[in-house]
Amino acid sequence: MFSILTLNVTRSMVMNTKQLSKSEIEYNAIALAKSEIERAQWASKNELDPNSSDYIFKNYTQDDPHKETLELGSSGQFKIDFYIYVTIDKNITVPSSTTINRKVTVHVTSPFFHEKFNKNTADYPITMDFVAAFEE
Q: Could you report the per-residue pLDDT of 13-23, keeping only the tens digit for each?
């Protein structure tokens, strides 16, 4: 009886630790997406134009996503890779508005989220949007 109880407690502790780890990785993916959204919030119109030489997301394409490696754990003992790509939609119109709008969408994924991970075809479970408005 004591062995069964010990086994159940141990299994429960492992499951809780696994869930905490998953939550921490998801939280970090959301934080990365948020930091890219903040970059876009402070960017100029040219910096959010994919055809401009000032474009700030040049190396953030779906075919070749930007890679960020974060160290996690109490002493940085775990390294988790995250892949980020950004899309800009320049054709956002608001009725009776004289502003130029750009919709910035940030996508983040990690091998942790998928059993068979391929950075170019993986589903990106973390997505955030932001619409920047500029006077004409």
A: 777 777 777 78
Pairing mode, strands 126-135 and 78-92: unpaired
CB 55 within 8 A of CB 49: yes
pLDDT tens-digit readout, 41-99: 999 999 999 999 999 999 999 888 999 999 877 787 889 999 999 999 987 776 766 67
Tokens of 3: 């062995």
Contacts of 135 (CB under 8 A, 6+ apart): 98, 99, 100
Predicted model pTM: 0.81
Among 13, 12, 27, which Cα is nearest to 112's?
Answer: 27
